[in-house]
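> tool_call: predict_assembly(chains=two)
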Amino acid sequence: MLEPIKNNWRILLLVVVVLGATVALFAPQFGPQTAPGENVSEAQQGVTNLQYGLDLAGGTRVRAPLIGYTATEVDFGGDQPDEVARAVAAELENASARDIGAVPEENAVEVTNPTVTESEFRAAMDASGYAYEDIRSGVTQETRDIAQEVITSKINEAGLSGGSVQQVQSLTGEYFILVEVPGEGREDVIELLEERGTVQIDIAYATENGTAIQEEVLIQDDFEDIGTAAQADRGTGAYVPVTVRNTAPEGEQSPAHSFQQAVDDRGFASAYNSNQDQCRYANGSLSGERNPCLLLTVDGEVVNSFGMDAELADSMASGGWATDGGFRLTTSEFSEAEQISINLRAGALPAELDISGQGTSRSISATQGENYKTYSLVTGILAVFAVAGMVFLRYREPAVALPMIVTALAEVYALLGIAALLSYPLELAVIAGFIAVVGTGVDDLVIIADEVMSEGEVNSRKVFNSRFRRAFWVIGAAAATTIIAMSPLMVLSLGDLSGFAIFTILGVLIGVLITRPAYGDILRRLLTIR
Amino acid sequence: MVAIEVPEVNYTEYSNRQLVAIPLAVLVLALAIIGGWFLVTGAPANLGLEFTGGVELRIADDGGDVEQQIETAFDRQPDSVRSIPADDVYVVTFRAADEDPEGLANDLSTQAEEAGLSTNAIDQVSPSFASDTARTAIIGVALAFLGMSVLVFAMFRTFVPSLAVVASAFSDLVVPIAVMNLLGIQMTLGTIAALLMIIGYSVDSDILLNNSVLRRTGEFYESVNRAMRTGVTMTLTSMAAMIVMAIVAALFGVDLLRNIGIILSVGLCADLMNTYLLNVSLLRWYKFEGVKR
């Protein structure tokens, strides 16, 4: 009973691997992970568990650095981070303390305001009196981590399923944020990423000689219970329902109270008495009755200005509003409200992504991806036919050639199984790797066949084994060189090519360890049992 | 049925010098082409988008005079417009301008949209990222070549045969680059992958030859012919796969696969020449003259 297993274990191993690959490819347990709000059948692309990458499924990939400068090895001198930030900000004309981040864990101070140049920041650091080693471009690790989190939740909030966000480092040590969103066009993704998404409310009010703006009456952190965008009950506008936080540390006014105070101070209650009272604000100045206006500001730009219901203004004036804190951020368009809702929930990006300058992006439409899928399948099949044709022409003996082709195909099948198991997204480069594997695989099978059949009949097991071992030395050496040649690609960040390298190496390993020994056994059975 | 028989070459008719002359001449010519390219263009090859930076758009050809539209749609003159009939698209390439390429991809896709063209895919590579990629690629190829050389020397532990393998691998790398320049194929990430693949692929037949001659008993010419029978079959099978891949992928406009296919086909061709002329003659010299010293 055990004897046949022992004699044919190589073939059995190949069968086990092929069965394993089948399970990995088709069993629902190995299906792709589902994104939030997605069910299994949606996550699955086609009948197999294979995942298709950007090239074959369509989607957008963006790789861009976060804009900013960081002073390294800063001596904080025992000062608190916010003290340091304020001191540096005070030396910069165009930046507030919110644009400066002081991270004691990294001994670093960063500026994230894109208008600040390197020399300005250097001058500010010098003037602030904190000793530092050098200024480099880029932001701190902490900021990158926050940015990664924010982008991830932005993508999820926007309902773009299956997106991934990573930090990658280039050869020169620069950090980039790499965002991949399958099935989504370039514009949608870039729109989402390009906005930092800082939302704030300012108040515009009339003064004797014009219009003044009280900035940051409400900032992002002051909002809680952010609702989804909704169409306004009347008119064409839309709004996001929010609640303004009514809690604060000891001895400080809560945001709700201070907002209420500000609204009252600017005279909303006396200005808005009926529906006839309107806010008229354009290009930085009030017109008409010059009623005070609330300005909804996103990334420093006023996206909408609006007045206030008489009722609401009155409840603010009487001081009753703050306990409840309900408020509507009104916009003129629904899509704008949606964007603001996403920004508020996901939080603001701690620094801007430099997509148009140093960014690299790739976007492929779903139809183009579908086409690429078909083309690469056709290319792969034709390449296999070419190899098969050559092998048949050379050996003319189906007993030698047929197992050769079957074995080479088993190798690719096993690789597909691994790809499904790892949920590794298939890209064009990976397909190229598969075709390369068929090429090398058959090469080695040719070596085995030639070696075994050289010098006359193979009539005993012993002769076969010694010839097979000889052939195997060459195969092992060839495999080792291929692995060595491919390994730099695996670790260097050269885009899709790591996939190519990984699958070529895996293919070579499967070949040497599993399929080629099995081919040897098959050949032995065919040649010795006669 | 026509069978492929690998012909036996009668090496005794030729001296080592005669055998080496052809591959050396080809190598020198290839190096001269690459050197000349470097002097004229400042780069050893035609660098593709990934190494220069820029924007590439794949514009759907949905009937009508798309080519005409492309001519007029953009503010900037495209650097190249290629038509791929099998995929019904035009590939339009813009090199990164020396002036700031701020928002180039955005502008171009908006301009394409305004002109009523539908964009199937858009690739944007920033110049700084491109120069980074170029450096990484060179390091990658150098590391791979170095690793392969060390491994070969470790496996054979004799100087001349190891050198023969490394020398023909070097030539296998250089010849395809020169051919790429002449054919106007751009250096892209795909071609880098192909070059690394050549390092892996091409030494197979050299190792087979060295193994047959050095580690097996038997007369020199018999060993060479035995290795050649297997080696030529191997190389031709791989070449068949690569040529088919290159042709099919070129028809469909899948550049990555096409480039890998072309480069590997040329590299394997060069490998046939290098293995059975350069490597054989070095081995013969080593076997008959080198060992005696």
